[in-house]
Design a protein that fits this description.
Blueprint: H1 11-29, E1 43-47, H2 58-66, E2 70-73, H3 86-104, E3 108-113, H4 116-126, E4 131-137, H5 151-156, H6 166-173, E5 180-184, E6 204-208, H7 221-232, H8 239-250
Parallel strand pairs: 1-2, 1-3, 3-4, 4-5, 5-6
């Protein structure tokens, strides 16, 4: 993949984000034009974005439950990023993942919106045997904190100092060795889309959705279709084939 300029979205796109998010929300309430595939009942954990809690992902979780998945909130309240011990916080998240896996004996799909996608990816790295796949929605894993419009909030919640040093940024950009899909929108008003794009490989695929706001990732019907297709794919076979089939079915 060629290098992409990492910079915040244009100011006009940021200004329009609330209105576009409302539009995406109401679009998600409308009946779907075609039915979504039902799942096999495997467990799913959904991680919220920066400054948000499980209430923000409740609508998405409810829709996935209706598609026959066992869906869990991340159970950590508001996502403020761990104070100092990132690995210790991942261990805490890993306890929930391990408990669900031990109870169901089934690998867990991890879905992370925005900052929450970083947790999904890191858990997939530390617990690959427990994870079926990681799906990120508008997650800037290849980004810099100052190239998003959320960077100031990220720094404010961490005492005025960015918690992202160069070593951590390099670590976050490395893909897990489990199936991983990054769903991103070029019209995102908060996160620069280029920071959500990784190198395509056997394990990683970038999936673009058109005209979706950052907050709308949780409600837009096109995003829901992508997520439903990914979750419903059988676990066997190469992930490249699974994702190609998934995208082909959307068009």
């Amino acid at each position: 993949m060629e290098d992409l300029a990492l910079q915040p979205p244009p100011a006009i796109r940021l200004a329009l984000e609330p209105l576009r998010a409302i539009s995406d929300y109401f679009a998600g309430l409308a009946p779907l034009s075609e039915p979504l595939p039902h799942g096999d009942g495997h467990p799913v954990i959904v991680f919220p974005g920066l400054g948000a809690s499980g209430s923000a992902t409740e609508g998405l979780r409810r829709r996935l439950e209706e598609l026959n998945y066992e869906v869990h909130d991340w159970e950590q309240g508001i996502n403020q990023w761990p104070d100092n011990d990132f690995d210790g916080f991942l261990n805490l998240l890993g306890e929930q993942l391990t408990q669900i896996y031990n109870r169901t004996s089934r690998p867990v799909s991890l879905i992370g919106w925005s900052l929450g996608g970083l947790y999904a990816r890191e858990l997939a790295k530390t617990h690959p045997q427990l994870v079926r796949q990681a799906i990120t929605l508008a997650t800037p894993f290849a980004d810099q904190p100052n190239s998003t419009h959320a960077g100031w909030l990220f720094t404010l919640l961490n005492g005025g100092v960015s918690p992202m040093d160069e070593a951590l940024l390099r670590r976050l950009s490395i893909d897990p060795v489990v199936p991983c899909a990054s769903v991103y929108s070029p019209s995102d008003g908060i996160v620069g889309w280029a920071g959500c794009v990784g190198t395509e490989s056997e394990y990683h695929r970038n999936i673009e959705v058109d005209n979706v706001s950052h907050w709308g990732m949780l409600h837009n019907p096109e995003v829901l279709r992508v997520v439903a297709r990914l979750l419903a794919e059988h676990r066997h076979g190469t992930f490249r084939t699974l994702l190609d089939n998934c995208v082909a079915k959307l068009f």
